[in-house]
Amino acid sequence: MPERPDLEHQVPIVARRLVGATITAVRVKKPVVLRAPVATDVLVGRTVRDVRRMGHFIAVSLDGDWDMVIHLMLAGRFAFVRAGTKDSADLAVAWGLGDDELRYRDDVQMGKVYLVPSGDYTSVPGMLPVGVDVLGPGFTPAILAGLAKKRREQVKVFLKDKNTFDSFGNAYADETLWEAGIHPKATVASLTPEQLARLHGAMVKVLRDARDEIARRDPPLDEKVRDFLAVRNRGGEPCPRCGTKIRSAGVHGHDAFFCPVCQPDEKGKGMVDWRGVGK
User: Fold this and answer.
1) In sequence order, which residues have a C-beta less than 8 Å from that of residue 141 and are 6 or more positions away?
2) Could you give the C-alpha distances from 14 to 10, 29, 118, 189, 203, in angstroms and in order?
């Protein structure tokens, strides 16, 4: 799924091209991605008023009675092309914008394009409520400690709860837990005050640094930049901190990458010096 640093780069690019534009045509090539109670023809002639990120969704506000909500999921991506450009095999939906098209591409067809009554997002599964803004001034160690109370799930599952935090997926949850020195299978209830403080610092640092790195590189709209990550998808490679081989484990149906020394599964075992985490 797209994560916050990716969307913070992509959504403003889409907004600059879409806001104020009028949809002149809609082509649906892979109907499985579409969730619409009416024909997509109702979008033709409508002008885009706003494009914004809402958690891990993209909300496109239109004039009239209908809005669009897009969830890119695992492989969804956008591309702006000239109208008449040959379709790619992974094209799912295309919106005509006069001489140009915005194309939504998805080679595994896991993403979703919802058509909803204007301003009403309650029918989109998992969209509301949007969790706490981790990069906002209101996210403090005390807020995290309060959210963690009475939570019994594994800490990676906790981080990925979109109703709690805005917003982590597999990649940045792994990076955060590595930065904080916490095993992905540790339960939230088992975390000490010190570990929660480290977790808070790591959450902010990882998302902020990733956002800034992606902005610095300014990749094309359809390119996902992840090569700077420390542990995600690096199984068998040396840990950047201690040199131990990175391992993977299953967590709630998903994989998790971690360092067995930097992220011990027993309190204190293999612990390294965490001074400076979150600075």
Assistant:
1) 196, 197, 200
2) 6, 21, 20, 41, 27
Query: What are the sequence ranges of the domains in the chain?
Result: 4-117, 132-258
Neighbour count for residue 78 (Cβ, 10 Å): 20
pTM: 0.90
Q: What stretches in the chain show pLDDT beneath 50?
A: 268-279
Does domain 4-117 fall under CATH 3.30.70.120? My reply is: no
Could you tell me the two tokens for 2? 């797209």
- Could you give the angle at which helices 4-18 and 193-217 cross, rounded to 10 degrees? 40
Q: Indicate the CATH number of 132-258 among 1.25.40.10, 3.20.20.80, 3.50.50.60, 1.10.8.50.
A: 1.10.8.50
Q: Cα(189)–Cα(154) distance, rounded to whole angstroms?
A: 9
DSSP 8-state code for residue 41? G
What stretch of H or E contains 232?
Answer: none
C-alpha to C-alpha distance for 250 and 26, rounded to whole angstroms = 40
What residues contact residue 216 under an 8 Å CB cut-off, 6+ apart? Answer: none
Among residues 136, 272, 109, the alpha carbon closest in space to that of 203 is found at 136
Give dist(CA 180, CA 157) in Å, integer.
15
Tens-digit pLDDT profile for residues 192-237: 999 999 999 999 999 999 999 999 999 999 898 999 999 999 999 9
d(CA 122, CA 126): 9
Taking the C-alpha atoms of residue 158 and residue 188, their distance in angstroms, rounded to an integer, is: 7
Largest CA distance in the chain: 63
